[in-house]
Amino acid sequence: MMQSFLPFLQIFLILLIEGTALALLLLPISTMSLAIALGLPLSALTNVLLVFLYTVTGVPLTLISITMGHLAILGALILLIYLRPQFLMDLERPVKEPKKRLSTVQKSIIIASLLIIVMNAGYSFVHAILLPTVQYDSATNWTMRSEISFVDHHIAFDADESRGMAKPQYPFLFHALQITANQGQERWLDTAANGILYLLSIATFGAVFLMIRKLHDSVHSVATLATIISIPLLGLHLAQGYGDLNLLQYFLLSLCCLGMWIESTHARRHRWLMLSGIFVAASVWTKSEGSVFGLLPWLLTVSLICGRNKQTWKEAIPAIIVTFALSVPWPIFAWLQGLSLTPHSSDTMLQLHLEGVKEALIGLFGRGSFGLTWYALMVLVPVFLYGGWKHHPAVKRPQLPLLLWGSVMFLEFLFIYLATPNVRFLLNAESFYRQMMIPAAMLILACSLCIKPKAEKHL
Q1: Model confidence pLDDT, tens digit, residues 399-423
Q2: Are the C-beta atoms of residues 438 and 301 closer than 8 Å to each other?
Q3: Is pTM beyond 0.90 here?
């Protein structure tokens, strides 16, 4: 057991230190806790870019090649920090604020929220670390593709399912991270593969918590996190093994960074937008849906925030360019390889399927996958929009454009399931549910960011 754990720990620490160093360079004003929390999400992106470079050049994916590649990246980042002496001045020192007495209601919210988080974290730990992979899609695509690629020492692009792997057209951030986590092992270990994803989830939601806390307070932050995690289907996905959770995690990070960008008055506030774009690019490398449900709505949201403000557009253009530069290598590579850019070959065959409307409504409101989530959102989103229109003091008007991302995504998913042959996955109660949990979580976060705190926050 110890022989298996030590290589995993070494790889994890390299990724964590690398990502933390990158976060310290990218954050406008760095806090060590936030930089560490963003470490693994950022290094997962550098990892897939490294694996992509090796895939294009034909370098085998081995312990030596992957480790040396990451050490080279880490060395370059440390050199950049060394050449930027003002970095230490940018590192925000924790300030001890006087403790505020919490009301009974606030204490109750914290206790209930922590119970939800702890129970879901425990469920995730048991299924990700202690139990083997059992999900159907993982066994035929996600973890299976990672295992085959680990054995091949190259990312697998099997033309058929003779080795048990489906959908070679999927981008491979998920797979690259699992492969890297297994380096140094004598054989493939599900525990290492799912363990790194479990740590990625902890890091992501930890970073989301810290960013919301900067905008509001701890009570608001922990309540938001618990509300997102309490979506019944999302709780099941925390067991790891599906790429939808990783896709959502990058969307949440990107949306939080957009909120920080809107609120910040710092001279380097544009770096929040840069980080937001980097996380969108990471979503493109995670699933095919990253381009349509991540990049496109992100561009629309940024455009709405910028409006006619030339200065804001001046901040946004470099971030947009970097986002495109990090995103386009995958679709170009897939196109050159003759791979489909959509999950299914029939996704572009348009035809209205009204028979799916009833099933979609039942799925959102009548079954247990979402609980009361969509009932609440159908009320909350119009309330926030109306409150913003009426300049209600409890609503942050500048944050209202953030509602656009989840709303556009929701309409996109409805279109796909009601106007393409994907209606069969709706009628069979398959992928419709796990995809609809993504706009649900995004709208919950957006609503949370639209609430104005009692005390003014300065970023």
Answers
A1: 999 999 999 999 999 999 998 888 8
A2: no
A3: yes
